[in-house]
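Each field is listed here:
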Amino acid sequence: MQALTLAGRAYTARLLIGTGKYKDFDETRRAVDASGAEIVTVAIRRTNIGQDPKQPNLLDALPPSRYTILPNTAGCYTADDAVRTLRLARELLDGHALVKLEVLGDPKHLFPNMPETLQAAKTLVKEGFQVMVYCADDPIQAKMLEELGCVAVMPLASLIGSGMGIVNPWNLSLIIERAQIPVLVDAGVGTASDAAVAMELGCDGVLMNSAIALAQDPVLMASAMKKAVEAGREAFLAGRMAKKFYHAVPSSPTGGLIGS
């Protein structure tokens, strides 16, 4: 199957997962292993990757030699905060350029603040960052982010942590149709069927955290999500049969029936 290319680098896995909300770093590692993910996202403001040498370091469980660490700006509500956070991440990760930008609008819904997101994206791209960006499922603003130089757009399926699945597949389809960069669903996936639907729509990948970390068995759910993303991608590439409303078509041949 064709690899997912992000910022010039090819990845076999199209499932990306977050590293928050697990009970400990051991469970995080086991879930990541079961998911098959090659890219793991880390909330710089919430997870220790070297900021505090006295605390456990996530990079001991998920070494950068094995995984692509994708620092994100979770918890940022202004463009300035997001830019400062990713500058810190670049220092902590020895010049690492691939990042996930998210600028939130309010702490209740965690919907993206798009004016601040666009402002931050413009600054980060100018500073040489390779920006993957969490955004509203708005085809116009997604295109604006692409034109600014972002390497991937990541529209939400539904609100972060809601588990509601894809509430607006039509907007996602419009974004996918126009995009010349990868489109990855980010936020709102609740179970494996949601991930499969995203891939069947033509998304290039899916990023999730809560759906795995908050499952009763996170490691088993991670395995299920891996299979769902792969199945959805294969179904998209295969091309589903056309829907034929009000017109049943027998699945078996109708000619040469016994006794006719």
Summary: The chain has a mean pLDDT of 91. The beta strands are 4-6, 9-11, 15-18, 39-43, 68-72, 98-101, 130-135, 152-155, 184-186, 205-208. The two ends are 46 Å apart (CA to CA). The first strand starts at residue 4 and ends at 6.
